[in-house]
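Practice problem: predict the structure.
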Amino acid sequence: MSAIVTDQFRINNAGNFLGDVNNSSNSYYVFVGLSNPSVNGVPNAFGRNESDAKWNDETTRKKPVDSINYLNHVRDTMIFGKKITPDNIRRVVRKINWVKDTTYDMYRHDYSSDNQAPNGQTSRLYDSNFYVINKDFNVYICIDNGSSGINTTGNASLNEPTLTGLEPFRATGTTDDGYLWKYLFTVPPSDIIKFDATEFIPLPNDWASSTETNITNIRDNGNSDINNNQIKKVFIEDGGTGYKNSGGDGIEVKIVGDGSGGRAIVQVDTSTKITDVQVSVGGKGYTYGMLDLTDIQPSSPNAKLIPIIPPSKRHGSDIYKELGADRVLIYARFDDSTKDFPIDTKFAQIGIVKNPTAIGSTEIYNQTQYSSIKSLYLDTFPSASDIKIGDIIEQDVKVVGTSNTIGKAKAYVTSFDLISEDSNNKIAVLKYYQDRSLYFNSGTGDQQDTIGINSISGGANGQIYDFSDQGAITGTDGTSTYTLGINTSFSGITTNPTGTKIIDLGVEFKNGIAQSEINNQSGDIIYLDNRQLITRDSRQKEDIKVILEF
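Answer:
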């Protein structure tokens, strides 16, 4: 069975996704995770039996897997997330820069496998280079590139389009290059900062409903129902022969079809060939058109003149359909302004999660950001240089009120924030995640049976236990060990060790322990990217741009 999914389906899906993100009943977050993808000796867990060099190499790094099991594991290693707001998401299209001496395609409604765009030999309008962005971030549609049935590819563009008027224009220069441009919009500075990318142009939000003067002028000017200016170009595929000479002024003829009002001026040279057609009245309502050449027609008509039908019946009315906006770009910035985003950690995964729930609740989490790792408020610890990201910390878990060990709490160190080294007031916050691979068979890194896997009898493997405010915690980097102690008397979200500056810890502690702000195993992960390991630093900010293509 022959079937297609059309471009309009993809464009519509991009719009639906953007609308879903902007719906106040939903919460979408960009998150980062996996602070230690390559811990030696732990196989099968995100490539952790591999070196940093193998992980950081695009050709050898393990690719994410679209399976429930894999994504559940991803949730274990999630670190923090930032909410996607309407100000941080845009539809985008391919970036096609205007470059002198480049030949661009003109807009045509009839590109297909049988009528490919001549310069790129593309079968889709949206794969052709029919629009450009100039040095001032103005975006233009190419209405005419000087092409015809004789000059099929058109001319090289010599003059940069710069005007921002409502009607199509020819860019001025020392030579007429034959190009006719239609201005659409200018990317504002705020969008350049957030959304400009090497390969994509951000489009304005809410084009159809915007009250911004520049947008409404372009949008309304293109409304053929109001201005009777739908058709802008008639393409001469074959000028024919034997037509009545038009003289210098040309002959105005009707454009017939399923619309109305269209007219064009036809020029016929002394050789009886049609050499030029200029639209005098664009008309309205056309989805196809033909020129009525009755007044100049030979006994055997043979010219082929094709009125080019704009999108949605007019240029500028719907730029998403006009430019083929089937992608969205999502922007998130992570900096050092909050303890939710620790600056001493690393990350090797970027993802998007929809509608995670608040910890201890079924309600959708709705804050601007979240921490998805747990924290310990410490008053006993070695020097900061002894504790490294990826270290393993452990604590024996005992039956309350007894010395009977029933299991072991295990975790990877994700961040170590030294707040005070004063001997009378030692304070540090250690953040961690409890990755299920720590509880798998230590030799195989999976669910293979091993002695002691029964947590009750073995006290070592299998079941994940939380850290408690009872008992010492030991840490190791694989070669040396150290001891940590929790300040069980501390509860709250701020501390003031020096008496002069309140420090916001980002999360709420109870008896020296803070939980994740979300239920990590909640929500739908809709995007995931395994990346080269990024090391955070107080002197840098991470601008993350995720492009989703529908």
